[in-house]
Specification:
The protein is α/β, with parallel strands linked by helices. It has eight helices and eleven strands. It has a single domain, classed as Arginase, Chain A. It has a nine-stranded mixed β-sheet, sandwiched between helices. It has a two-stranded antiparallel ribbon with strand order 3-4. Helix 5 links the parallel strand 8 and strand 9. The longest helix has 19 residues.
Length: 295
């Protein structure tokens, strides 16, 4: 099956090209919003980001690079059977495997945070020793949430089971249960409250490894990003997120997602615009990052 058979394409992100064959990065909307536990609405995010991107320049002064120089293809949004969670997760994994099998990098726009699990499962099959970098307000380390093992509140615990606790790096965490914080401190590479400085301190351990990056928009203080399902006061500023995205140029990133934008809670549209700019910077950073050799 081809990726195009799994997707619907209504619009494109900024200057992405209509050329899958020659693209290096595949932008993929994943409008999954089934397990959101506080405020729903993240299924509207991919199209909101594409619409907001039309207000951006192609050029990034921070990275001194133009999106038109990069081989990016916007595949559209995955068609998901939203009444069946497992079928949705299977389809997300299938799409990521198709992209990776073609030697390309999946860049997903969520959607809720659970979309990261099937993506990591797929990329771990292609890249042994995969490290997962999470930037988030919430630890997402619960073993279950209201009796469910598959949830946006359990996604990093499930990912630990896929790649191993010691291969999970958690940055910026400022919310969770006592058990989650104890688990993080004991098992993962756990760096609460900060993101850019602690990421840089981890670079010696990460530079020679394949890396998957998941970025939850609620790592930002809700003063800057109110349009999210679980806003958590006390977060970082946008400048720090852009610094994190710049650092990704130094890593071997094999996949990336930005999740948990819920546009309905931000009538001004500033959160969607922020995610659009984060997407542009992420695409430009990944276009310069080295790809690891596949075994």
């Amino acid at each position: 099956m081809k990726l195009s058979e799994l997707c619907i394409k209504n619009s494109s992100f900024l200057e992405s090209r209509d050329d899958y064959r020659n693209a290096r990065i595949i932008l993929l909307g994943v409008p999954l919003d089934i397990t959101s536990s506080f405020r729903t609405g993240s299924r509207e995010a991919p199209q909101a980001v594409r619409a907001a991107s039309q207000g951006l320049e192609d050029y990034s002064p921070r990275l001194d690079r133009d999106l038109g120089e990069c081989a990016v293809y916007d595949a559209g949004d995955l068609l998901l059977p939203l009444g069946n969670l497992q079928a949705c997760l299977n389809r997300i994994g299938q799409a990521c495997r198709l992209i990776a099998d073609d030697g390309k990098i999946p860049f997903m726009l969520g959607g809720e945070h659970l979309i990261t699990l099937p993506a990591v499962q797929a990329m771990a099959e292609f890249f042994p020793g995969l490290a997962v970098l999470q930037f988030d307000a919430h630890a997402d380390l619960r073993d279950d949430y209201l009796g469910e093992s598959l949830s946006h509140a359990t996604v990093l615990r499930r990912i630990c089971e896929v790649v191993g606790d010691n291969n999970v790096y958690q940055f910026g965490i400022r919310s969770g249960t006592r058990d989650e914080f104890q688990y993080g401190h004991a098992h993962t590479n756990f760096y609460p409250f900060e993101a850019a400085r602690t990421l840089r301190s981890c670079l010696p351990d990460l530079k020679e490894r394949p890396v998957y990056v998941t970025l939850d928009i609620d790592i930002l203080d809700p003063a800057y990003a109110p349009g999210t399902g679980a806003p958590e006061p006390g977060g970082i500023q946008p400048a720090e997120v852009f610094e994190v995205l710049t650092v990704l140029q130094e890593l071997q990133v094999v996949g990336l997602d930005i999740v948990e934008l819920a546009p309905v809670y931000d009538a001004s549209g500033i959160t969607a615009m922020l995610v659009a700019k984060m997407t542009r910077e992420g695409l430009l950073a990944l276009s310069r990052a080295a790809l690891p050799a596949r075994p």
